[in-house]
Each structure stands twice: as C-alpha cells, then as structure tokens.
Write a structure and sequence with these properties.
six-stranded antiparallel sheet
Length: about 150
C-alpha cells in the first residue's frame, strides 16, 4: 500500500481519507482503522474553514462498519484552526476499530486525514494474512555454510 507506512515497531501511519477540494456541508467518514495491537491513536487532518460547528471526531466500534460506531466521549475537536489533531490514549478496551469523521456544517473543503497508531503492545499481533516467515539468528556465523 503506497499510503501506509510502518515507521517503527511501535508506530504505524496511514492516510485514511484522501481529502476533497469541493466545499460542502456533509460529514465524511474515514476508512476503517484496525487498532489491534496498538494502545493509542492520533488523527491529523485539515479543514478549509474555521468554525465552531466544523471539526473532526473519533468513533470506535467492535465491528469494522461505521453503522455501529459510537462517538468517543469528548473526542470532537472544533475547527478553531485549519489544522486539526486529535490524540486518544489509552484506546478503549474492547473497541477494536476506529474511524475519523469530518464534521462540517459550515461549507468547507477537506484535507487528507492521517491516522497514526502508536504504543504497540508487547504481545505479538496475530496477522492471519501474513505470508512471510521471519527467522532471527542469535549468533550468525560469518563463515560459509558447511554440511555436517
């Protein structure tokens, strides 16, 4: 995925909404953000018009559908600036999925929304779709391999 980057073992950044130059007054939901294995989420976005009724909100759910998503208490950030950052830590227990939501009741264009998951848990994350096997040698030998 071109818009997804693993910055380290503890941080994962991804573009979850590409933005829109058309000014409108609708709410826009981001792509689903799977929080499995991470304890914190930061959303960064921008909005074309500052207004107290415009902003960004964080939703959480046990399913990957926005139909069952609920607003996180006190997560709405009003657009008193055109750059918006919402940080949620610790992530609510039992809520695996997150969504960002642009709210604009005053007409405004929207910038891209970035999701940054951080503080990876120490337990390994189970990824059933992974096809890579990784083996780490504790003391690799610098010489050529010999048969025994």
């Amino acid at each position: 995925m071109a818009a997804e980057h693993l910055l380290s073992n503890n941080v994962h950044a991804r573009i979850v909404y590409g933005g829109s130059t058309a000014a409108a007054t609708t709410t826009i939901d981001s792509a689903v953000i799977d929080m499995a294995g991470y304890q914190g989420l930061m959303l960064h976005g921008s909005i074309g018009a500052t207004a107290t009724d415009n902003g960004i909100d964080v939703l959480c759910s046990t399913s990957s559908s926005t139909a069952q998503a609920e607003d996180l208490l006190n997560s709405r950030l009003q657009a008193t600036s055109t750059a918006l950052i919402v940080d949620v830590y610790p992530w609510p227990v039992g809520k695996r999925y997150a969504f960002g939501r642009y709210i604009r009741t005053t007409s405004a264009a929207l910038g891209a929304m970035h999701a940054i998951k951080y503080k990876a848990r120490r337990a390994p994350v189970d990824n059933a779709t992974s096809t890579q096997a990784v083996r780490q040698l504790a003391h690799p030998s610098p010489g050529p391999r010999t048969s025994t």
